[in-house]
TrEMBL record:
<protein>
    <submittedName>
        <fullName>Glutathionylspermidine synthase family protein</fullName>
        <ecNumber>6.3.1.-</ecNumber>
    </submittedName>
</protein>
<keyword id="KW-0479">Metal-binding</keyword>
<dbReference type="GO" id="GO:0016874">
    <property type="term" value="F:ligase activity"/>
</dbReference>
<feature type="domain" description="Glutathionylspermidine synthase pre-ATP-grasp-like">
    <location>
        <begin position="12"/>
        <end position="370"/>
    </location>
</feature>
<dbReference type="InterPro" id="IPR016185">
    <property type="entry name" value="PreATP-grasp_dom_sf"/>
</dbReference>
<keyword id="KW-0460">Magnesium</keyword>
<dbReference type="InterPro" id="IPR005494">
    <property type="entry name" value="GSPS_pre-ATP-grasp-like_dom"/>
</dbReference>
<keyword id="KW-0067">ATP-binding</keyword>
<dbReference type="Pfam" id="PF03738">
    <property type="entry name" value="GSP_synth"/>
</dbReference>
<keyword id="KW-0547">Nucleotide-binding</keyword>
<keyword id="KW-0436">Ligase</keyword>
């Protein structure tokens, strides 16, 4: 694994905007950054794919254990949501996608930091944008990237011909991710309708969630976290209707950082896991994470018992987990995190985010890769 610098394409802004990546620059700094790229060997790509498949396997096993042994309290999930999780798991409600965040420099084994299993973004960048970069800059090379093809294959798994899509109003990144998913859904032969989360209604006569035209939503892809949905006023209507959503409600198990503790308890010493617990337990070097924090907020890194780095955010009052601090992965002062995608239950490719900070945030740069 190497980090290599080079000159960006002269018209890179126009190129990525044509694919829908309109948020390529933030505060005059590139978010999409092709002034560098990561080069892997084919052996390293095989290792990443194998690690991703293995993490998916043990995550399924741990979810089954969590339900069987009733780990609801340890995951801080409400009784109402827990019952829906059980029903959803028993129905085997389908999942479209997820993203493991891994730390690795090409030596040893990739280590799992967390599983963004409910509402992962950076999908557009990882799929078509970095593929275009590859085709234009080194067309004879390859890339660990079958995301687009696997999305097209996955959508027909749902029997509904029409699917609604929603995201929060005002979030450009979320909406660009949503529009890309809508495009893949249409390419698979389905029809789609989109609306803002804030415009979803409830029709008491039909006993159904409805769109602005009062049409019932038989299946809704929501780029909106389940833990937020259960706090909304309309959550009283969720029981008995959770099978109408993508991602399924059982994804609350995996997107919860307390799940990292349960994984470690079941698979202690696994080469792709970092020790994680509900207390520091003597770990002088650790990362403190709230159960449901997002985009690197409210994270604290402690080294040799002293605070090394921290971020602010709205999740400070949540319960925390404590994950062993991985040895520093740095390329010329840049710290990459490899987002390894699962589509339809299978490894599908990677996207890399990097930062000069040890904590990856929503402004961390996206760097393309090849092998």
């Amino acid at each position: 694994m190497q980090r290599i610098t080079e000159s960006p394409r002269p018209d890179w802004q126009a190129q990525v905007e044509a694919l829908g990546l309109t948020f390529h620059t933030a505060d005059d700094h590139p978010y999409w950054d092709e002034s560098a790229h990561y080069r892997f060997s084919s052996r390293e790509i095989d290792q990443l794919e194998q690690a991703t498949a293995e993490l998916q396997r043990i995550s399924i096993a741990a979810a089954e254990r969590a339900i069987r042994d009733n780990w609801r309290d340890r995951l801080a999930i409400s009784p109402q949501a827990w019952q829906e999780i059980i029903h959803s798991w028993d129905r085997d409600d389908l999942s479209l996608y997820g993203r493991f965040d891994l730390m690795w420099d090409g030596s040893g084994q990739p280590k799992m930091l967390e599983y963004n299993a409910d509402t992962p973004t950076s999908l557009l960048e990882a799929s078509v944008v970095q593929w275009q970069w590859l085709q234009q800059t080194r067309p004879h090379a390859d890339q660990f990237n079958s995301i687009h093809e696997k999305l097209l294959t996955a959508w027909p798994s749902w029997p509904q011909q029409q699917i609604h899509f929603c995201a929060q109003r005002g979030s450009e990144e979320d909406w660009r991710t949503l529009l890309y998913l809508i495009d893949t859904c249409r390419q698979s032969g389905k029809t789609t309708l989109d609306l803002a989360v804030e415009d979803i209604g409830w029709n008491a006569g039909m006993q159904s969630f409805v769109d602005q035209q009062d049409h019932p939503m038989d299946l809704l892809f929501k780029l909106y976290p389940w833990e937020w949905m259960w706090l909304e006023d309309f959550s009283c209507h969720l029981p008995g209707r959770c099978q109408r959503f993508i991602e399924p409600v059982w994804k609350m198990l995996w997107s919860n950082k307390a799940f990292l503790v349960l994984l470690w308890e079941m698979f202690e010493g696994h080469p792709n896991l970092l020790r994680t617990s509900f207390k520091p337990d003597g770990m002088r070097d650790h990362v403190e994470k709230p159960y449901f924090s997002r985009e690197g907020t409210n994270v604290r890194i402690v080294q040799n018992g002293s605070l090394l780095e921290t971020t602010d955010g709205p999740w400070h009052a949540q319960p925390k987990v404590y994950q062993e601090l991985h040895s520093d992965v740095s390329f010329s002062g840049n710290h990459p995190v490899i987002g390894s995608w699962i589509i339809g239950g299978e490894p599908a490719g990677i996207g890399i985010r990097e930062d000069t900070s040890l904590i990856t945030s929503n402004t961390s740069r996206f760097i393309p890769h090849w092998f």
